[in-house]
Give the backbone structure.
Amino acid sequence: MIEIFRSTHPNHFTLPRRIERLAELAYNLWWTWNPDAMRLFLRIDPLLWEKTYHNPIKFLRLVERAKINAAVQNRFYLEDYDRILAEFDAYCTRKDTWFATTYPELRNRPIAYFSMEFGLHETLPIYAGGLGILSGDHVKEASDLGLPFVAVGFFYTEGYFTQRITEDGWQEATYTCQEFEDLPVLPVLNENGDPETISVELPGREVEARLWEIHVGRIPVYLLDTNIDSNSPSDRTLSARLYSGDLEMRISQELLLGIGGVRALRVLGYNPSVWHMNEGHSAFLILERMRELVAAGKTAEEALKIVRSSNIFTTHTPVPAGNDEFPLWLVDKYLSHIWPELGMDREQFIDLGRHTTNWGDMFSMPVLALKQSEGRNAVSELHAQVSRKMWHFLWPDRNEREVPITHITNGVHLSTWLARRMRYLFDEYLGNGWLERQDDFELWEQVMSIPDQVLWDVHRHLKRKLAYYIRERARLLWQKGNVHPVQVIAAGVLLDPDALTIGFARRFAPYKRANLLLRDPDRLLRLISRQDMPVQIIFAGKSHPDHEGGKRLIQEIYRFVKRADAAGRLVFLEDYDLNLARYLVQGVDVWLNTPRRPNEASGTSGMKAALNGVLNCSVYDGWWREGYNGQNGWAIGGDVDYTDPEAQDEADSRSLYEVLENEMIPLYYRRRTSDDLPGDWLYMCKDALRTIVPQFVMRRMVKEYLERLYKPVMMEKQTSFSQ
Ligand SMILES: *Cc1c(COP(=O)(O)O)cnc(C)c1O
């Protein structure tokens, strides 16, 4: 066990001694990015592993004794068990991590990372989309690199919703209460063995939250949860759901995250050197840290200066309307008790987050965070340009170009998203220790030596795996009843595992333009339905349940998918989540993304696809504007700005059809070698691997955060009053 964790895993599984450490493995998410560790569970009972949705805790609770006994009798199983646990121990206790060897002098300077959502695994529904996946991947990589890191978020007991689609294409959302006994979350207890709690003042009451801990490799993630007896029934649901409820719910949650999060770290004995706010939701942490300093005798101005010097803020939102802000009446209601404690009056306080709009003044979380941070970044180069323009008013005496917002382009955690088969392929062709060098461009030159046949075989295997998985899901849907037969076709039963397959999966926000392909329906139908060159397109994604526009978009797609003339070649898969994302980014031929530029701050799913040798076809926006080199995939439209969205959609859709018709489809079907291999296609896949992977792995990203944003703050002389 690592001493950094406050809690240890329970051992209520009564496993045989010989393999009892499976319980420990189940409670550390390390197994989720180590496929051989995952297989220690799966191999005992593959069907139960699927049935429990890859939840090792539930799995160990339910697995038959006879199957466990069979594993204990199996010499090969035991050999693997011993080897993997030794790897796990070595990982957890490793002293020569990148961070420890590069910056030994900074090891006692913890980095606190705050995020509203964490996408760590499909069994932990505490994420909604890209922001959460990015947070989860960031934590995993911080563990791999050995950063002194601690994360803070929410334990949403009902999580994000499960999506069902009605026959008419309407999204239905259901929330399920999570059984925390079955989740890898551990209660944090105080010396008396009672739950450790913190409290935050909301209008007329104190709301308490208890703390949960998740072990992510070497990193603890702490989650706040208000579902405890001492809270009123309505306060108990404050942390029940992610992004749900009205503005009062939202400001309450954000007060809990920001203020409660700081208090939680204090209770746990942390004195972070860096406070990283991943998006503005956690910016109230600034207030709590100020309050601490003012209570210790500092003036408001001194306190702000100290607080600012250790804050890092990452913005993800390129549109003003997407930013989190509150009307001033709400600020009066929820925060008026705070400003005296900060040594401020109302106007001074409001100035911290003031955003003057056409509708009057608002209190803006990103304004608060931007003004009170030492380091500020956007998540791609274009996004930084847009952000500098958007927030120029905060630095009126500077040129737009000099607005102090830099960019660190997003990345994805390689081991989480890479298919096991691809990993074995890289083991063979990239040489020993390649994982350690994953952000080294030179290493990836070696993919050019992978024989076409070998790469094609692995890819075909992954594609078939996706097709079988989809078919099984469709079968279950049908079996459960209450669906129209056409929904089974829409769910993908007619997919052909050999046809060119395009994936499009993401949140259904209108700017993502899932319907761009449908602008010219006849042209689309012609493109997909040629007997000799069939094309299939798999859609998936959720809309925010309160967002009618997103739900209508799903409906538009779904109605089209059901059409007889689409011939079952268009598919909509329900309930997009981490698990489905993994299947899709590993198993399709092309990953399609059609955001309305410049609204895709970065995007990350295309990077996941690229790791697996899947080609990207995407708009010149976000990360793809940096990843595309003219031949490692396809770009839609140009590197140009539009003022008229209608003209933009028209031009982009035309460009997309042309790419499909003139480049992508012929490249896949026509240019086959004598042994029926798409040689030029495979060359492009290798070129994509070579040029994209080292640049867009989470390792490059976290190193960049460390070197460009965290380190300057960590090197600051630690002030005595920073507690
Ligand atoms: C990666 C991922 C996302 C984010 O994808 P984008 O391309 O950034 O839209 C959203 N949801 C899930 C489940 C993911 O795995």
Remarks:
- The longest helix spans residues 452-480.
- Residues 17-93 form one domain.
- Residues 129-130, 133, 506, 576-578, 581, 603-605, 608 surround pyridoxal-5'-phosphate (CB under 6 Å).
